[in-house]
Recover the amino acids of this structure.
């Protein structure tokens, strides 16, 4: 029994510390990860100490030498021991906070908070008051019944206040998001109302029931659960509304004004920096990107030394057969490759910053704001349990909070109202009829084309500098596909967004892209201008891809096909990976990986046919094929 009681007390202590920290403001809150580690270790140590003390006191209380000393038994009171635990926790917690901070469990966050220490000291004082009250019961030999009205009074008060808090939160959630009370203000008000109402009821319960009636025999009135429910609810509602209107809302408004002033200053500084930064033409440069998947069957070499550039306002098409590594390349750019996948090496330089060297938390600042991705299947990409409007506005709230604050201050509206207006305007720009109605629908209530438009809206919400479109029209019919492509071109021009467009359809590439990179089995085999590539392709794989496209008005008995299949990337062919299917294959193709050769300005081909070291052998192979 002692073990269970000590375990429950340790759990309550840990949860209390976590709740106290989580309800501090962001700027003074201790790093959550560091706090959890420190609280967990401190609680485990205290659990061992208290369990030992409890067992020792209980043993002494039962030992015949100290049998007359009931103090040993009284000191095992749960509330008293919990007060000791709370007191020991604070110095231990401070020690382990500094210890875990050295390991940098969470970079660039507040580690030690003076506000948490002050709040926790108040918690210790409260624990000692409660501990002293419950210790006085056995010391003064106050009679307790089973079940006891005194204990039941506390339990019923906790239940009533908890239910009132749940009702308050539910009512707030049911209101339109534009008129809701902010979560941090709401929490402060309901916690204050709950604590004060519980405190007032507890004080009268201790004085009237415990001391006056049981200790001195003075009966003022009987405790009644009906009176408890009415009084506690009345106290809670009164304190909640008074503190909300007189204290917490004015405080939140004052903090918002200070924050708004800082936001305006940062916004002006950012605009001036952007003006000075104009002139960098290359927005994304991928260098020697390599990604492997470590499976039970073997290592899947999905991406091998991929390199390309995307300039401002340019669309680069990434084309190739299914399974050649196009999607993995896109996922590697945003570090979205999941285990067993791993980015082995390479650089992804976005506006002068190498994203590969950044942590996941740092890359999150780029995702959705500066770089966004449109996935192939919108039904799987959109969350089925949230409305369309909630998913679009979330993008604004996460990445454009400063802009929302500035706009809201100008129009004297809430940021949620402004976010909704922006979302509906964006849906209207995407030719979605009745955006105010679509805003409140779920993804399954829309057609495939509409879902894809919504996904594009989420991608373009923050006017990203780079948009990655991973076969966005594959699951759509031809009519909707044409509408989506036309829409994407218009929006790209409107927002001046660079684009990486991934597809296996050369017809789409010819419409959408300025330059194209042809990918085969993890390698970029040809990369250059779209006009040059379609007029005069160099690589045998590119020629075969173009030849396999049906031409309107040109009759053929059989369509051209590329013989063979894309190789298994666990056991890829040695040398050039296309050589088993290549018509021009000659001696070095099956043993040496071709290097990327610049045949024309900014036009690269990776093929031994154009390597000066194998010029004679290449001419023999070409002549042999022509014959």
């Amino acid at each position: 029994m002692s073990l269970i009681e000590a375990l429950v007390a340790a759990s309550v202590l840990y949860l209390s510390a976590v709740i106290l920290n989580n309800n501090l403001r962001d700027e003074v809150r201790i790093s959550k990860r560091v706090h959890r580690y420190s609280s967990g270790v401190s609680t485990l140590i205290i659990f061992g100490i208290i369990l030992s003390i409890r067992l020792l006191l209980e043993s002494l209380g039962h030992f015949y030498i100290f049998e007359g000393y009931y103090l040993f038994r009284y000191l095992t009171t749960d509330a008293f021991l919990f007060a000791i635990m709370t007191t020991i926790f604070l110095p231990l917690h401070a020690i382990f906070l500094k210890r875990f901070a050295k390991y940098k469990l969470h970079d660039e966050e507040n580690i030690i908070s003076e506000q948490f220490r002050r709040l926790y000291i108040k918690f210790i004082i409260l624990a000692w008051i409660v501990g002293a009250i419950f210790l006085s019961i056995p010391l003064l030999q106050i009679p307790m019944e089973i079940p006891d009205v005194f204990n039941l009074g506390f339990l019923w008060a906790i239940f009533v206040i908890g239910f009132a808090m749940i009702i308050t939160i539910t009512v707030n959630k049911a209101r339109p998001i534009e008129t809701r009370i902010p979560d941090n203000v709401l929490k402060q008000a309901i916690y204050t109302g709950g604590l004060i109402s519980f405190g007032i009821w507890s004080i009268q319960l201790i004085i009237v029931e415990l001391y006056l009636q049981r200790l001195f025999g003075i009966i003022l009135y009987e405790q009644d659960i009906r009176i408890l429910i009415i009084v506690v609810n009345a106290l809670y509602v009164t304190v909640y509304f008074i503190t909300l209107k007189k204290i917490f809302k004015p405080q939140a408004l004052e903090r918002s004004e200070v924050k708004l002033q800082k936001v305006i200053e940062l916004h002006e500084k950012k605009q001036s920096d952007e003006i000075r930064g104009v002139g960098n033409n290359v927005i994304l440069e991928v260098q020697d990107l390599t990604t492997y998947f470590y499976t039970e069957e073997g290592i899947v070499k999905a991406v091998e030394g991929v390199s390309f550039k995307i300039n401002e306002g340019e669309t680069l098409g990434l084309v190739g057969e299914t399974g050649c590594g196009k999607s993995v390349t896109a996922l590697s750019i945003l570090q979205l490759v999941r285990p067993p996948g791993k980015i082995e090496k390479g650089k992804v330089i976005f506006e002068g910053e190498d994203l590969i060297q950044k942590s996941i938390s740092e890359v999150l600042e780029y995702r959705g704001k500066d770089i966004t991705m449109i996935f192939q299947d919108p039904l799987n990409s959109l969350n089925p349990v949230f409305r369309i409007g909630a998913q679009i506005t979330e993008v604004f709230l996460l990445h454009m909070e400063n802009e929302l604050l500035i706009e809201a201050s100008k129009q004297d509206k809430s940021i949620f109202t402004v976010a909704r207006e922006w979302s509906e305007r964006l849906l209207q720009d995407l030719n979605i009829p009745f955006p105010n109605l679509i805003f409140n629908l779920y993804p399954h209530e829309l057609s495939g084309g509409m879902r894809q438009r919504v996904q594009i809206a989420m991608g373009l919400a923050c006017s990203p500098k780079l948009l990655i479109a991973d076969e966005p029209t594959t699951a759509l019919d031809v009519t909707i596909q044409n509408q989506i492509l036309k829409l994407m071109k218009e929006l790209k021009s409107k927002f001046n967004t660079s684009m990486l467009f991934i597809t296996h359809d050369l017809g789409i590439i010819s419409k959408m892209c300025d330059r194209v990179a042809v990918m085969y089995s993890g390698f970029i085999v040809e990369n250059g201008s779209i006009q040059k590539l379609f007029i005069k392709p160099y690589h045998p794989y590119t020629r075969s891809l173009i030849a396999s496209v049906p031409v309107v008005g040109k009759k053929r008995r059989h369509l051209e096909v590329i013989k063979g299949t894309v190789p298994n990337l666990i056991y890829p062919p040695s040398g050039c990976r296309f050589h088993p299917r290549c018509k021009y294959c000659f001696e070095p193709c099956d043993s040496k990986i071709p290097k990327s050769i610049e045949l024309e300005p900014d036009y690269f081909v990776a093929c031994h046919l154009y390597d000066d070291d194998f010029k004679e052998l290449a001419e023999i192979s070409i002549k042999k094929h022509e014959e």
Notes: Confidence is low (pLDDT under 50) at residues 64-68, 104-111, 274-280. Residues 225-277 form the longest helix (53 residues). The two ends are 93 Å apart (CA to CA).
